[in-house]
TrEMBL record:
The keyword Membrane applies. It comes from Alosa alosa. Belongs to the band 7/mec-2 family. One of its GO terms (cellular component) is plasma membrane. It is found in: Membrane. The chain crosses the membrane at residues 29-56. Keywords: Membrane, Transmembrane, Transmembrane helix. InterPro entries: Band-7_stomatin-like, Band_7, Band_7/SPFH_dom_sf, Band_7/stomatin-like_CS, Stomatin_HflK_fam. Residues 51-210 form the Band domain. This is Band 7 domain-containing protein. It comes from the Eukaryota.
Length: 281
């Protein structure tokens, strides 16, 4: 709560500075009038055409400083506009989305595992006046803040969370960066965790653990298969025991299967039920 109150006070103070008395005073207006007269004098007309008329593109905005003060409360552009020579200066701000890579960071996780993590951040300028007046280099400041935020965010996570919850970590980083860079006029649109590199020994240990888990699962599956097969054989034996003819048919089927595999002469006894008919005759 104290940090939020402090940030709100800081933002209000910065807005007060921007909304402060913008009157240039007598000396300032005198210089502005002289600059305007100088711009329309015949010897300087051609030069003033190149110096006074400025063009900004659709994806750009211009922040105009007149005698050190920002002109109006909003930036100029896109299109063409006029500035006064000698008294006005212009700073162009690009509004397009910019991406940069977070260099690989050696991070110690919550469970004391050292990992190397890198990422990528996408951001854009949402308020050109704040990006010029509140920070000296918004791009460089955002890059440094992204590196420290990545280290602080992953320092509170376990290794399993770092490997499985990348999307949650990315959303948390985006929210933190967006809140911190709001006073700079920067909007963080997206954060992605690119790669997590583990130490070689830890990779081997994780591979051995995964292999042991797969072997144990294979043994369990094989045991379940044998149990199901034994149950099926028991049910089949009960069915065959109820019908002696079924046993004979199964016996004949087995003999035909053997005869199909190998060409040989097979001698097998006939069932006694079949021979009894001939014996009676």
């Amino acid at each position: 709560m104290e940090m939020e109150t402090h940030s709100k006070r800081r933002q209000s103070s910065q807005e007060d500075l921007l909304d402060d008395d913008r009157s240039l005073g007598c000396c300032g207006w005198t210089l502005v009038i002289l600059a305007g007269i100088l711009a329309i004098l015949p010897p300087f007309c051609l030069i003033s055409v190149f110096c006074c008329f400025k063009i900004v593109k659709e994806y750009e905005r211009a922040v105009i400083f007149r005698l050190g003060r920002i002109v109006d409360k909003k930036p100029k552009g896109p299109g063409i506009f006029v500035i006064l020579p000698c008294t006005d200066s212009m700073v162009k701000v690009d509004l397009r989305t910019v991406s940069f890579d977070i260099p690989p960071q050696e991070i110690l996780t919550k469970d004391s595992v050292t990992v190397c993590v890198d990422g990528v951040v996408y951001f854009r300028v949402s308020d050109p006046i704040k990006s010029v007046a509140n920070v000296s280099n918004a791009d460089f400041a955002t890059r440094l803040l992204a590196q420290t935020t990545l280290r602080n965010m992953l320092g509170t996570k376990n290794l399993a969370e770092v490997l499985s919850d990348r999307e949650t970590i990315a959303h948390g980083m985006q929210s933190t960066l967006d809140d911190a860079t709001d006073q700079w006029g920067i909007k963080v649109e997206r954060v992605e965790i690119k790669d997590v590199k583990l130490p070689l020994q830890l990779q081997r240990a994780m591979a051995a653990e995964a292999e042991a888990t797969r072997e144990a699962r294979a043994k369990v599956i094989a045991a379940e298969g044998e149990m199901n097969a034994s149950r099926a054989l028991k049910e089949a034996s009960l069915v065959i025991a109820e019908s002696p003819s079924a046993l004979q048919l199964r016996y004949l089927q087995t003999l035909s299967t053997i005869a199909a595999e190998k060409n040989s002469t097979i001698v097998f006894p006939l069932p006694m039920d079949m021979m009894s008919q001939f014996m009676r005759k």
